[in-house]
Amino acid sequence: MDASERTGGGGDGTGGGSGGGGGPTAAPVQSTTPTSLNTISVGAPTVIVSQVLVGANTGRKALTIYNDSISALYIDFNGAVTWTADGANGNRFKVRISAFGYWEMETTSVFTGEIHGRWAAVVTGQMLATEQT
Description:
Layout: E1 37-43, E2 51-54, E3 62-69, E4 73-77, E5 95-97, E6 102-104, E7 115-119, E8 125-132
Antiparallel strand pairs: 1-8, 2-7, 3-6, 3-8, 4-5, 4-7
């Protein structure tokens, strides 16, 4: 093998070639097309109601939600969040995000429909979401 055929340099342990030292050759870096990040902010309402937090997006690849309030935030997919005070009659929510809590959607099965939410109490604060498309 002549010097022009060596890629990692010094494969024979002599330290010759372009890389020197005879160590392994690093894989080339492949560039990827950057994705778009959308930031969404929804203020907590003055009454306890279910509302759309994040609209439907068929291009959604990932979603994170941060509950920036002192009250728990309940979220559901593609439908209003509902519950009764005694917990009976079919409470409807998928995820409870604690006060100042964070939730990340699984990227193996991304839901692309509307994300609805409802705070447990009237508070000041907001929901902050980052959607990757």
